[in-house]
Each structure stands twice: as C-alpha cells, then as structure tokens.
Here is the input.
Amino acid sequence: MVRVGILGATGAVGQRLIQLLEPHDDFDIAALTASSDSAGRPYREAAKWRVDTPIPESVADREVAATDPDAVSDDVDLIFSSLPSSVGAEVEPAFVEAGYVVSSNSSNARMESDVPLVIPEVNPDHLDLLEVQRDERGWDGALVKNPNCSTITFVPTLAALTDWEIETVHVATLQAVSGAGYGGVTSMEILDNAIPHIGGEDEKLETESRKLLGAFDGAELTLNDMAVSASCNRIPTLDGHLENVWVETADDLSPEDAAAAMESYPSLDLPSSPDPFIHVMEEEGRPQPRLDRMLGDGMAVAAGGIESTHSGLQYDCLSHNTIRGAAGASVLNGELLLDRGYL
Here is the structure.
C-alpha cells in the first residue's frame, strides 16, 4: 500500500479525497493536514463533514497536522493537495523540496513549463515532464497538476476529435455552485439567478486546454495552436458542470463521426478510469447535471446534442466537478504516478 497524505483535508475537495481514498486498494491515508485553526484536533471535530457518505471511522479520530513538511511523517509516499492556490503556491514547493511527490488540484503552477498538467486518459506522456522538472529545479520530489474542473469536462471530447485538426473552440460553461466551495456563493446570490463571467475561469479554460492537447517531445512541451475562447457562468445546481461547445475543424467532421470518435475514445487500465470514459447520449436534452453527473461513479464525461452548424460542430458535455473535476482527477493522477514508477 502507498501511504498518502492530504493537504487541506477539511475543505470540500479534501473531504472528497477522503471519500475516494479510504476504500482505495492501493492507497492508505496516513496524514491529514489543515490550517492552524484545525491542527491538533481530531478530524471529526476539525471538519464540518458535508460529503454524501458517512465520515470514515478510519480517519474520524486521526489528529489533523499542520500543513508543513516537518509535521508530516517522512514515510508518506504521495501527497494529495486541495489547498487554495494562494496557499499552494507557497506550501507545495516546500513539500516537493522535502522529497514528497505531490498530486495537486490547486490552480497555482498549472501553466509552468516544467509542471505536467495531466488528464491520464488524454495526455499521460506529459507526466514525463517530471524528469525535466527534477533536472531544472533540483527537486527530489515532484509536482503534478490536474486541470480546472471545467477544463476537465470539455478537453476529453476535444481529444477525441484531434484527427480532424481542431482550429477553433468556443465553450460556454454552466457551472455548479459546489465549484465555488461551500462558502463561495450565498443563497441570495444564486437562487432564482445565474452569475456570468466567473472571475479568472475563462483564462484557465483557454490556456489549460492548449497545454493538455500540446505536444511533448521528451524535453519541451509545445502548446496546441487551436484558438480557444470561453465564457464561464454559475448556475443553481449543486454538482455537475454542463458545457456548450462549438468546434471548427480543418477537415470536414460529421456529427456521426464525432459521436463515434467520442464513444470509442479509450479508457485506461487504472482503478479510477471509467469504461467507457465518454458516454455519448442520443436522447434529446441530455446530458443533464442531476441525471448524468454520476456516470462512471462520477469519473466519466457525458456528451450529447451533437449537430452540425454553419461553421462546424456543436455539442454539450458534462462531468461531476468535485469528483472527475477535482478530487477524482488528483487520485487518478496518483494512480498514474504509481503505474509509471514515480512512487
């Protein structure tokens, strides 16, 4: 068993990490960290548990440690980070310099040239950027990132279409309130409402997608040259990001060929990678967050409404933002690190 720690364990994504890791066959939760307000307290007292399964007894009475490398046992093999990006920017390098391998959901450093940004089914070869990272920074540990929760939703569908040479992508997101964290959007803001232009989200989708679909030659990663524009909006659903995507390709692409490419897009032989990875739905008005976010135990992507437009193709896609889009993505990256011999 690989001994793992969770940074930011009391937060929304930290709780999802515990939910996914506690029954995992390869990972054993050995350390939980949080802010100084929670450090030293039993986890059941430090965390206001909000996940839809009971708090695991194996962690309930575990003492929460400070989020500091010196407070975590050195026999921990892998760290999962769910820290706010402002904290992660300081803390994560300290853990890596201390020799820990970190699989992070935090947004800091995602676009740095030697930090692999990975969706294992899409670009597993990018993980080898860790060799470049260690050479350039002299780190004993390693830092790998998963993308933004909305980026994770539409990029797999684009990956299925790359044989037609994607030129332009427009994406409009309808993002669930859980993506803002438990205290992120008040009921008075979101009920009977929709909030357009979520701060900083547009740029993440536009840049991260080009890195994920970029080419890695073993030494350097080149961003994909497709043009991506995004508009991100918050709507009053609890979980599940629904996205409307418009794609223009150099080669003619029919809805039938696009559906077949998505439906046949391969999964991976990793415990958390769902099979099928992309569910193509033929029913009108699908996918929908309430009905389809738990496909593949929340790790699958759903696509539907695929049709031609005057300039290309339009479709809708959906994934569970706190499972596939956050905690589950970090766990899957951890499985890839283990599979590729980085642990």
In short: The radius of gyration is 19 Å.
